Amino acid sequence: MTSQPAIQLTDLTKVYLTDSLETHALQGVNLTIEQGEFVSISGPSGCGKSTLLSILGLLDSSSSGHYFIEGEEVSQLDENRRAEFRNQKIGFVFQSFNLIDELTVFENVALVLRYRELAVSETDIRSAVQDALKKVEMSHRQQHKPNQLSGGQQQRVAIARALVGAPTVLLVDEPTGNLDSKNGDAVMMLLRELNMQGTTICMVTHDPRYADFANKQYHLLDGKIVSQPTLRAAS
Ligand SMILES: Nc1ncnc2c1ncn2[C@@H]1O[C@H](COP(=O)(O)OP(=O)(O)OP(=O)(O)O)[C@@H](O)[C@H]1O
């Protein structure tokens, strides 16, 4: 870990061009996420949340501005370096879990490490996967397939997969969208617990109730972060 912010965006813009139409999805976003923070970004449909998350996750590039991960500029990386950074620095948690049905829980979580540029030994993979599954209390389901688990359990495995590579930041996209409120709350409590253990989290949600779990809440409107973040009172 370095003393640099986990993530820093300066004057970031994204313009989509379709036929003759320009959509200014992000219009000069400035955002700093310090190591160890739990940040939420919320806003109405179409305000640019998914666009921002795709750029933060190095799945898409910005039109202008700068993006730094731990002080290193990543806006201009070529596709290979970008994939490498994505694998090492970013953990994704999606609304739809995105687990691979044919693989066991263990293999779903291990996959991130198997894709590492520098090979990770089988012993290290086993130990990292077991640690990650322990953190989300899913050690007892290692040999199950995703379709043998409840939605809440699948999301916990997805969180283990996001954690296993010790990323700089977890990017979390509407993590409770496919869960009932009981399982949704449990997933949010787990994220808060992981944050208290040191994991940096950036979560995008349209649900103000869940945004409240974050320590710092940003609001996005028409592609801009509006006003100062709301801080959660200590609980
Ligand atoms: N691939 C694309 N091509 C053209 N315009 C796009 C594209 N993706 C998004 N947009 C436009 O950019 C703007 C921001 O979209 P984005 O999906 O980031 O919003 P959002 O806040 O995630 O919305 P929602 O909550 O409904 O998912 C919208 O006006 C959208 O129509």
TrEMBL record:
Keywords: ATP-binding, Nucleotide-binding, Plasmid, Transport. This is ABC transporter ATP-binding protein. GO terms for molecular function: ATP binding; ATP hydrolysis activity; transmembrane transporter activity. The keyword Phosphoprotein does not apply. One of its GO terms (cellular component) is transmembrane transporter complex. Residues 7-234 form the ABC transporter domain. Belongs to the ABC transporter superfamily. Macrolide exporter (TC 3.A.1.122) family. It comes from the Bacteria. Signal peptide: none annotated. InterPro entries: AAA+_ATPase, ABC_transporter-like_ATP-bd, ABC_transporter-like_CS, MacB-like_ATP-bd, P-loop_NTPase. It holds the Pfam family ABC_tran.
